[in-house]
Amino acid sequence: MTDPAPVTVADAPEVAREVFGDRLALAEAFAAELAHTGVSHGLIGPREVPRLWDRHVLNCAVPAVVIPEGSRIVDVGSGAGLPGIAMAIARPDLDVVLVEPMLRRTTWLSETIARLGLERVEVVRGRAEDVAGSVSAPIVTARAVARIDKLARWCVPLLDRPGRIVALKGRSAREELAEETAVLRRLGMTAGGVHEVGDGILEETTLVMDLRFG
Questions:
Q1: Measuring CA to CA, which residue among 125, 13, 150, 136 is closest to residue 71?
Q2: Is residue 45 situated within a structural domain?
Q3: Which domain, by its residues, includes 76?
Q4: What is the pTM of this model?
Q5: CA distance 164 to 182
Q6: What is the pLDDT along the chain (214 residues), one digit of tens a residue?
Q7: Residue 120 belongs to some domain of the structure
């Protein structure tokens, strides 16, 4: 069975060059992959294709500004490589580990990073709680995986201390953090806040919950 014909994805907006610089062509190839095999493999809904750039590719790339240069990051529940692959394209200085439990998705991720030639990105199949002890980094990222209390329980064991969880969240991020601060402090959080990134680039900024663990 062959893949269906590619779905047309909108051209990259002008602001994409601010985010990806001379790697814009890679970002365009990633967006095309999401629109084609990402849809046929069930990783992206077909209705998301018209808004791939703003809602997904750029939305997931701009939080890379809070990541220190040369960092290693673990992206939990990577799914369609969001945010892990988008960050890796925007920031070639990063070493990125994509952690994903579903075989269909890890196969797609491996094939996609091979097609894009992303040599500093690797894929590990498994749940976060299963790979703890064998996979770790100073920074763990996630997008739309779980509420922060549950997400932190999965991610804290993956952190090299001191470390950070950088979670991409919805518009209620500040309220969610306030409600779960006590739980997070019991898990070792020493500081936490919500940042807006992408101002002047995205029509709607990305909210990043940035939690530090000692």
A1: 136
A2: yes
A3: 16-162
A4: 0.93
A5: 17
A6: 444 445 567 789 999 999 999 999 999 999 999 999 999 999 999 999 999 999 999 999 999 999 999 999 999 999 999 999 999 999 999 999 999 999 999 999 999 999 999 999 999 999 999 999 999 999 999 998 899 999 999 999 999 999 999 999 999 999 999 999 999 999 999 999 999 999 989 999 999 999 999 9
A7: yes
